[in-house]
Amino acid sequence: MAERPYIVGNWKMNGTRAMLSEARAIDRAAQRYMKVEVALAPPFTLIHAVHREAEQIGVGAQDCHAEPDGAHTGDVSATMAADSGAKFVVLGHSERRGDHGESDALIAAKVSAALEAGLRIILCCGESEATRDAGEAEQFVLDQLRAGLPKLDDAADRVTVAYEPIWAIGTGRTAEADDIAAMHRAIHDLLVETYGEEQASGVRILYGGSVKPDNAREILSLPHVGGALVGGASLSAESFLGIVVAASEADEG
């Protein structure tokens, strides 16, 4: 595993300038938990402002276009995101796949664009409840990753994977510990197959799906769980920092 757990808040389509006080509180508190790497992915409209506030935490984008520029009204390129202060980008989130019909091929193109712009990537994967009930969850997730993982010699520095079972996102439901551990083990094995043992050991695999302060420590203590991608609980500094504390305690344990 990489040295520090990685806790990333995904604000999704939430946040105006009034939310900067929450980002500021998260950043200042994160300075007390240096054993944990903390980051926020606010909406595009706040990336620059959060970047200016941040002294400790990382700041990233929630998506980018596959092209560097051009006639794509309403879209934001990876270069633009980087120019605004983003250091990473979340790609392939199930809400993008579902709401916008994003294919594995499109996500792979976005991955290439983000890396070309100098951004780190968080590549998301996850299955629906129907896919899990059919016993096809592991194959489905690994196929998503095979399509999107870039071929790199420095993957440990540039790639993070986030496993988020779709049926657990924003529902209050969390996958069972054994299921999380099994999926993360399968993902780790694929990373070894793709990058080799040395590089794979540095690629953190985050869990996402109704992660909260009261369940975070158990989840983060599981093998091959290198952090969390947090949705709703990241909108409040109090709840998000509860997860950061849990990550710090899990790392010590």
Brief sketch in words of this structure:
The chain is α/β, with parallel strands linked by helices and 253 residues long. The chain has helices spanning 20-30, 44-53, 78-84, 94-99, 104-116, 129-133, 137-148, 155-158, 177-195, 197-200, 213-220, 237-252; strands at residues 6-10, 37-41, 58-61, 88-91, 120-125, 159-163, 205-207, 227-230. It has 12 helices and 8 strands.
Structure write-up:
The chain has 12 helices and 8 strands. The protein is α/β, with parallel strands linked by helices and 253 residues long. Helix 1 (20-30) links the parallel strand 1 and strand 2. It is globular and about 45 Å long. The chain starts with 5 loop residues before the first strand and ends with a helix. 45% of the residues are buried. The model has no long low-confidence stretch (mean pLDDT 95).
Give a count of the beta strands, DSSP E runs of length 2 or more: 8
- Give the mean pLDDT: 95
Instruction: Label the structural class.
Output: alpha/beta
Q: Within the largest sheet, what's the order of strands?
A: 1-2-3-4-5-6-7-8
Rg value: 17 Å
Note the run of SSEs as H and E.
Answer: EHEHEHEHHEHHHEHHEHEH
Report the sheet-strand fraction.
Answer: 5-15%
- Cα end-to-end separation: 14 Å
Main pleated sheet: 8 strands, parallel, barrel
Overview features:
about 250 residues; alpha/beta
SSE blueprint:
Blueprint: E1 6-10, H1 20-30, E2 37-41, H2 44-53, E3 58-61, H3 78-84, E4 88-91, H4 94-99, H5 104-116, E5 120-125, H6 129-133, H7 137-148, H8 155-158, E6 159-163, H9 177-195, H10 197-200, E7 205-207, H11 213-220, E8 227-230, H12 237-252
Parallel strand pairs: 1-2, 1-8, 2-3, 3-4, 4-5, 5-6, 6-7, 7-8
